[in-house]
Design goal:
- The complex is a heterodimer of chains A (218) and B (217).
- Chain A is of the alpha+beta class.
- Chain A is built from four helices and 15 strands.
- Chain A has helices at residues 3-6, 58-63, 70-80, 182-199; strands at 20-21, 27-28, 35-38, 44-47, 54-56, 85-102, 105-113, 117-124, 127-132, 146-149, 153-159, 162-167, 173-176, 204-207, 213-215.
- In chain A, the strands form three sheets. In chain A, strands 6, 7, 8, 9, 10, 11, 12 and 13 form an eight-stranded antiparallel sheet that branches. Chain A has a five-stranded antiparallel sheet with strand order 1-2-3-4-5. A two-stranded antiparallel sheet of chain A has the order 14-15.
- In chain A, β4 and β5 form a beta hairpin.
- Chain B has helices at 2-14, 46-53, 70-78, 91-102, 126-135, 147-150, 179-198, 211-214; strands spanning 21-24, 36-39, 59-63, 81-84, 107-110, 139-145, 163-167.
- In chain B, β3, α3 (70-78) and β4 (81-84) form a beta-alpha-beta unit.
- Helix content of chain B is 37%, strand content 15%.
- The chains are: A alpha+beta (218), B alpha/beta (217).
- Chains A and B meet through α1, α2, β7, β11 and β12 of A and β4, α4 and α6 of B.
C-alpha cells in the first residue's frame, strides 16, 4: 500500500484521482506538484514547489482532505451520465471454502479465491459493476459484466490492499485497484450504500461488517 | 509450545534493532484461567509484539485471508491463531474462541477489526462486544502505541520508533446468556472498554460513529 491509499485526494489542492508514484517511495500530486513522503515515524511531509515543507501526522492530513459529498457527486455523475467512480481493477471471486485444521483440530473455513481478472470497476448510485477486459469485444474475453445491485450487497470489508464485497446472489468478490485508493473506494461505496438505504426506506446503516446492519430511520 | 516460545525469544532479541519496547502492567494479567485480551490495532506488527510480551501463551483471532498462503498459515497455526471470516457472521470463529476459553486458555482479539489508517482508534466491532458478554471471562484491555510509527498501514517500510504496550486492570463484565440482555448491555460495555483502551493514547480517541449511533435497533 501507499500514501495514495490514505490520501484519496491531494490535501494541499484537493485534486482527486490519486497521487502518482515518484522516486524513493514518495508520491506526487499531478495538480499542484506537491511531493508527499514519509518523514520521521509515521509523519508525512509535503514538499510543494516554492513553499516551505509541511510535516503533519497522518490524522492531521486526513482532516485536511476535502469533504466526501456523495449527493453532489451523484448529481454530477447523473448529469454527465457517468459512474461515480471508475478505475481499472483486479477482481478475484470466491471459488469455494476450504476447511482448515491444525493437529487434527477443526479451526474454521477460509475463502478460496479464484484467479485474478483484469477489468474496469465502476460505482453507480445504486450498484457496483465490473467489466472484464475484452468483454463484448471481438476476440476478447467472452464474459459479460458483473453487477452487484446495492440491495443485494450484504457486507463491505476492506482487507489489506483489497476491498471485499459479499452479496446474497454472488460469491465473495475481492477487488484491488492498483492505481487508486482502496480507502476511497470503501468510503465512497459505503456513503452511496447509506444514501441508497435511506432513500429506499431500508433504514440507516450502522455497520458494514460482518454484515450490513440497519436501524429504522427516525 | 516450543515454537511459540522460540518466536518470543527471537522477537525479544531482534526488536531492539527496530526500537525500544516498553511494557507496562504485565502483573495484572491473570496467572491462570481464561481471559480475553482486547487490543487496539495500529500495525501488522501488533500480534507479534503483544504475543511476545504477554506472559501467558495466547490464542488470537486473525483474518481468514492470512491463512491463504500455506507457509503463512503454518506459521499462524503454530502461533495459536485461528481464522475469522470478517465479511460475514462467522459462528465457527465464536465457537472456537469460546471453546478455547472454556479450556482455561486466553484469547486475543483486535477489537477494531482492522488496522487503523490514520493512527486514531477506530470504533469497536460489536460482534466482539457480544462475544465478551457471552463468555463472561475477565477482559484485559491492551493498548499498543507507537507500532503505527514503525510500520503504518499505508507504507511498506519499517522505521525506528519506540513502542509501548500497556496492559490494563482486568474488567469484569457479567456473562449474559440471553440475546436481549446482551444487546441491552452492548453500548455500556463498548464505552467502558473503548474508554480503557483510549486512556493511554494521548487523546487519540475513537473516531467515526459512537457505539450508541451504531447499535442496531
Amino acid at each position: 500500500m501507499a500514501i495514495r491509499d490514505l490520501f484519496w485526494a491531494c490535501p494541499i489542492c484537493g485534486r482527486e484521482g490519486g497521487l502518482d508514484s515518484a522516486r524513493r517511495g514518495s508520491e506526487v500530486c499531478g495538480g499542484c506538484s506537491t511531493r508527499f513522503s514519509r518523514g520521521r515515524g509515521s509523519a508525512i511531509t509535503a514538499h510543494t514547489p516554492g513553499r516551505p515543507p509541511i510535516t503533519l501526522s497522518p490524522a492531521e492530513w486526513v482532516d485536511r482532505l476535502p469533504e466526501l459529498d456523495v449527493e453532489e457527486r451523484i448529481r454530477r455523475a447523473e448529469a454527465a451520465g457517468s459512474a461515480l467512480l471508475s478505475e481499472p481493477a483486479l477482481l478475484r471471486m470466491q471459488a469455494g471454502e476450504v476447511p482448515v485444521y491444525f493437529r487434527g483440530r477443526y479451526l474454521n473455513q477460509i475463502e478460496d479465491l479464484g484467479p485474478p481478472r483484469h477489468g474496469l470497476l465502476q460505482l453507480f448510485p445504486d450498484r457496483v459493476t465490473f467489466l472484464p477486459t475484452g468483454a463484448g469485444e471481438e476476440g476478447g474475453d467472452a464474459a459479460s459484466s458483473i453487477t452487484w445491485p446495492f440491495g443485494e450487497i450484504t457486507a463491505v470489508q476492506p482487507s489489506s490492499s483489497t476491498l471485499q464485497l459479499n452479496s446474497r446472489r454472488l460469491p465473495l468478490a475481492s477487488f484491488k485497484v492498483p492505481g487508486g485508493s482502496i480507502r476511497f473506494w470503501e468510503a465512497l461505496l459505503c456513503a452511496a450504500l447509506a444514501r441508497y438505504y435511506l432513500m429506499n426506506g431500508l433504514g440507516e446503516i450502522i455497520e458494514f461488517q460482518p454484515r450490513i446492519a440497519t436501524r429504522r430511520a427516525t | 509450545m516450543t515454537f511459540y516460545r522460540f518466536c518470543q525469544r527471537l522477537v525479544r532479541t531482534v526488536w531492539p534493532l527496530i526500537g525500544p519496547l516498553e511494557v507496562v502492567g504485565t502483573e495484572v494479567i491473570p496467572e491462570q484461567g481464561p481471559f480475553l485480551l482486547i487490543a487496539n490495532h495500529q500495525s501488522v506488527l501488533d500480534p507479534i509484539l503483544i504475543q511476545t510480551v504477554c506472559p501467558r501463551p495466547m490464542h488470537t483471532m486473525a483474518k481468514s485471508t492470512q491463512f491463504a498462503s500455506p507457509v503463512v498459515a503454518q506459521l499462524m497455526y503454530h502461533l495459536n491463531s485461528f481464522p475469522v471470516r470478517r465479511y460475514r457472521i462467522d459462528p465457527q470463529a465464536v465457537r472456537y474462541a469460546l471453546r478455547v476459553l472454556r479450556s482455561g486458555e486466553p484469547v486475543g482479539i483486535y477489537i477494531e477489526g482492522e488496522r487503523t489508517w490514520d493512527g486514531r482508534l477506530q470504533p469497536p466491532r460489536l460482534g466482539t462486544i457480544r462475544l465478551i458478554l457471552k463468555a463472561g471471562v475477565p477482559v484485559v484491555p491492551c493498548t499498543i502505541q507507537g507500532s503505527y510509527d514503525v510500520w503504518p498501514r499505508w507504507h511498506r517500510g519499517v522505521r525506528r520508533a519506540p513502542v509501548r504496550i500497556t496492559f490494563g486492570e482486568p474488567l469484569y463484565f457479567p456473562r449474559l446468556d440471553h440475546r436481549e440482555e446482551r444487546e441491552a448491555a452492548l453500548t455500556a460495555t463498548a464505552n467502558t472498554l473503548m474508554g480503557r483502551l483510549a486512556a493511554p493514547l494521548d487523546g487519540k480517541g475513537v473516531t467515526g460513529a459512537s457505539p450508541e449511533q451504531r447499535q442496531a435497533v
